[in-house]
Write a structure and sequence with these properties.
CATH superfamily of the largest domain in chain B: Aconitase, domain 3
CATH superfamily of chain A: Aconitase, domain 4
Radius of gyration of chain B: 20 Å
Oligomer: heterodimer
Radius of gyration of chain A: 15 Å
CATH architecture of chain A: Alpha-Beta Barrel
Largest sheet of chain B: 5 strands, parallel
Shape of chain A: globular
Low-confidence stretches of chain A: none
Distance between the termini of chain B: 47 Å
Order of helices and strands of chain A: EHHEHEHEHEEEHH
Mean pLDDT of chain A: 96
CATH class of the largest domain in chain B: Alpha Beta
Helix content of chain B: 25-40%
CATH class of chain A: Alpha Beta
Mean pLDDT of chain B: 97
Largest sheet of chain A: 7 strands, mixed
Number of domains of chain B: 2
Number of domains of chain A: 1
Number of strands of chain B: 18
Strand order of the largest sheet of chain B: 4-3-2-5-6
CATH architecture of the largest domain in chain B: 2-Layer Sandwich
Number of strands of chain A: 7
Strand content of chain A: 15-25%
Distance between the termini of chain A: 23 Å
CATH topology of chain A: Aconitase, domain 4
Structural class of chain A: alpha/beta
Low-confidence stretches of chain B: none
Number of helices of chain B: 13
């Protein structure tokens, strides 16, 4: 993937310490990727997944994605969210965002800078975040170059498939 | 400038003289562990080549014995993978099976100074063996199995100096709940455990601290090596190793003392592990439906024998389900041999086969609507063990066993002195 990754969309806001059990509960493990998306925040915000529109942006608090290794980032991506902007990202969750090429950034101050429903504009590479409703801007932390390259390559499976190291998905 | 244990291993494994917090490094991986969830149809990608089959371990642990057709299918895929690449360290359902993190301890798979990966978040458990072990994503595991490498971002290190000795009926789980309750999350940081109090803790007790460090959101959790660790490794793995000590001038974000002798039994209230601890007395009288002992954090021989001492000659309260899950077949056999399993059975416990099972709300003890559980496992998140309306309290195996006897959250010192 070349060129800028730039997103504009309506924001949803969640709090601190959102864990992966809330994003991808155990009972959804046997379902298809598409079906799994319908369980995002099922325990803490029932009905939310059904309201998300393609291109929406999720704003989170501190230590977003704490908990397990499960492919919770994949569910957020498949739900149609264009990106995730947080106060801070859990280290393991960041790995899966990179693995599944789901654009996720840390941007201190973002949680207080938006009200749910406002429109955000995000330049992923430079980590510039704008609140279009208020005309304000924030500077987040760009991903380290090695990790940015993986996201731009489309994630780990895309890379391994191109190199002939895993079989294409059936 | 001096380095912490994590920094020294990151430097050695990335071929650098030094690493500092903020560095992103590519490291060689010594051990890659795959488990049944990796092979579920929604997760698996067919690997065409592996870097070195002798660096791979495969176990089935999250869904064992297979509770569903999908879990059974994952095992079929896993067995085909093992056969295709001639993987020798395979822990199929049967004699050598167990929760991956317990197998690492049982078989000495994590050598001091090495790098170990598994796509289960509690992989940091193996840091008890003075190595770098991290839970990563499923794709990271497939990448590492193929390429023999992974990336790590080096964080700052917080060191815990343990002193003193735990009082009767107080365990490493209580020490963890103390740290998690006071200091909360350690996101982006490494946690290093050392100090004069370590010698009084068994490897099993130390492993509770490293496994639970996943709940601190730590990047790596490591213990300093000592004679107890060296003896443990020598009886399980003939390979040579060199323990990694932190430099005398290593730079820590903080050094915090924990006086083990001053601790008391604690519980974590439902829905969050961190910043959520209180003395067991404050929860006294909370009614429970289920008491659970198991998981990678507290399913060891020592945990099961502790529970047996609490319940010996007594009966589980009417209306309470007391479920005990040895973390591996080795632990199961050892606790049958020691008589602990017999004692637990006579008290009314149900013994489940080694599995992550109920800890993750998978099977073998899932909670229904509004049910209350006290668990010695790893997580108490909302809905973690079953219905979103259920409540999960967390405590030591001693506190869980004492609570099973009364039907209410109970101070284990009432039964153990």
């Amino acid at each position: 993937m070349s060129g800028q990754m730039k997103f504009k969309g309506r924001v949803w806001i969640v709090g601190d310490n959102i864990n992966t059990d809330l994003i991808l509960p155990n009972k959804a493990f046997y379902l298809t990727h598409e079906e799994q998306t319908q369980y995002v925040f099922h325990a803490n915000r029932p009905g939310w997944a059904q309201q998300v529109q393609k291109g929406d942006i999720l704003i989170g608090g501190h230590n977003f994605g704490m908990g397990s290794s499960r492919a919770a980032a994949r569910s957020l991506k498949n739900l149609g969210l264009s990106c995730l902007i947080t106060e801070s990202l859990n280290g393991l969750f960041l790995r899966n965002c990179v693995n599944f090429a789901f654009p996720a950034l840390e941007c201190p101050g973002v949680h207080a800078a938006f009200t749910e429903g406002e429109e955000a504009e995000v330049e992923f590479e430079t980590a510039r975040v704008r609140n279009l409703a208020r005309g304000t801007a924030l500077q987040g932390k760009p991903l380290p170059p090695q990790l940015m390259a993986l996201v731009q390559a489309g994630g780990v499976y895309q890379l391994l498939e191109q190199e002939g190291l895993i079989a294409p998905r059936k | 400038m001096g380095m912490t244990i994590a920094e020294k291993i990151l430097a050695a494994k990335s071929g650098r003289k030094a690493v500092v917090p903020g560095d992103v490094v590519t490291v060689d991986v010594d051990t890659v562990i795959l488990f049944d969830n990796n092979f579920l149809p929604t997760n698996w990608r067919d690997i065409l080549k592996v870097a070195d089959p002798d660096k791979i371990v495969v176990t089935f642990d999250h869904r064992v014995p297979a509770p569903t057709q999908q879990a059974a299918a994952a095992q079929v895929t896993g067995r085909a993978f093992v056969k295709k690449f001639g993987i020798k360290r395979f822990h199929d359902v049967g004699h050598n099976q167990g929760i991956s993190h317990q197998l690492v301890a049982d078989y000495g798979y994590a050598m001091p100074g090495s790098v170990l990966l598994c796509s289960d978040s509690h992989t940091c458990s193996a840091g008890v063996f003075n190595c770098l072990a991290r839970g990563v994503g499923g794709p990271d595991i497939i990448y590492a199995a193929i390429k023999g490498q992974t990336w790590f971002r080096c964080g700052e290190t917080v060191r815990y100096e343990l002193t003193g000795k735990l009082p009767a009926a107080v365990t490493a789980k209580d020490a963890f709940l103390q740290i998690a309750g006071v200091h909360g999350a350690h996101a982006t940081m490494n946690v290093e455990y050392g100090g004069s109090g370590v010698a009084s803790l068994s490897i099993n007790a130390r492993k509770t601290l490293t496994a639970m460090s996943a709940e601190l959101s730590a990047e790596f959790a490591t213990f300093e090596a000592d004679a107890v660790l060296e003896q443990w490794m020598r009886t399980r793995n003939p390979a040579a190793f060199v323990p990694v000590k932190p430099d005398a001038d290593a730079k820590y974000l903080a050094v915090r003392n924990v006086d083990l002798s001053a601790l008391e039994p604690l519980v974590a209230l439902p829905d969050s592990v961190v910043n959520n601890s209180q003395p067991v007395g404050q929860a006294k009288g909370t009614r429970i439906d289920q008491a659970y002992i198991g998981s990678c954090a507290n399913g060891t021989q020592e945990d099961i024998e502790l529970a047996a001492r609490v319940v010996k000659g007594r009966r589980v309260a009417s209306g309470v389900r007391f479920i005990v899950t040895p973390a591996s077949q080795t632990v199961y056999r050892d606790t049958v041999a020691s008589g602990a399993i017999q004692t637990l059975l006579e008290a009314g416990a149900m013994i489940a086969p080694p599995t992550c099972g109920a800890c993750g709300g998978g099977h073998m003890g899932v909670l229904g609507p509004d049910e209350v559980c006290i668990t010695s496992s790893t997580r108490n998140f909302k809905g973690r063990m079953g219905d979103p309306s259920s409540q999960v309290w967390m405590a030591s195996p001693a506190t869980v066993a004492a609570s099973a006897l009364t039907g209410f959250i109970t101070d284990p010192r009432e039964f153990l002195q």
